[in-house]
Amino acid sequence: MGILADIKALSSVQRIKNGGFAYISISSITTMITNMQDAKKNLSVEQFNAVHKQYLELRACKSKLKLDYDAYLHVAIDIIKKLNAIAPYEQYSGHSALETSFLMQEINEETN
Predict the structure, then answer these.
(1) Under 8 Å CB-to-CB from 50, ≥6 apart: which residues?
(2) Which range is least confidently modeled, 63-67, 83-87, 104-108?
(3) What's the CA gap between 66 and 51, in Å, rounded?
(4) How far is it, in rounded angstroms, from Cα 85 to Cα 88?
(5) How many beta carbons lie within 10 A of that of residue 100, not counting itself?
(6) pLDDT tens-digit profile of 20-77?
(7) Which of 27, 59, 89, 106 is deepest in the core (most CB within 10 A)?
(8) Which pairs from 55-61 meet CB under 8 Å and 24+ separation?
(9) Residue 97 — pLDDT band, cuts 50, 70, 90?
(10) What span, in angstroms and rounded, lies between the C-alpha atoms of 89 and 34?
(11) What's the CA gap between 8 and 14, in Å, rounded?
(12) At what angle do helices 69-84 and 45-59 cross, to 10 degrees?
């Protein structure tokens, strides 16, 4: 059920981007915005273990939230901040480090 829910969440994000809303869980958003294979490859064992622990905690949040695009971004940014507090998110975002560094710069400026 988890994999099917995650696949459905991908189409839900498209609906959100087109101006609608959808029900998506924190678990599915976490899966979409992290790459644990990159984390294992790029982080120290200690960092990976800590990130993996947080990842599993976020993956346990299965309740679906009704989200529009702004709410989706807010939840995704909160997840990124939690993970980035443990280890640099650029190392396991699933995108290039340069690309993610621009995102992180924007998130950090928004927070300040």
Answers:
(1) 86, 87
(2) 104-108
(3) 26
(4) 7
(5) 19
(6) 999 999 999 999 999 999 999 999 999 999 999 999 999 999 999 999 999 999 999 9
(7) 89
(8) 55/30, 55/83, 58/26, 58/27, 58/30, 58/82, 59/2, 59/27, 59/30, 59/31, 60/27, 61/25, 61/26, 61/27, 61/30
(9) low
(10) 8
(11) 10
(12) 150
Residue 4: which of 22, 21, 27 has the closest Cα?
27
Q: Which two tokens stand for residue 18?
A: 């087109």
Which helix (H) or strand (E) covers residue 25, if one does? Answer: strand 22-25
**DSSP code of 95?**
S
Residue 94: pLDDT band by 50, 70, 90 thresholds?
Answer: confident
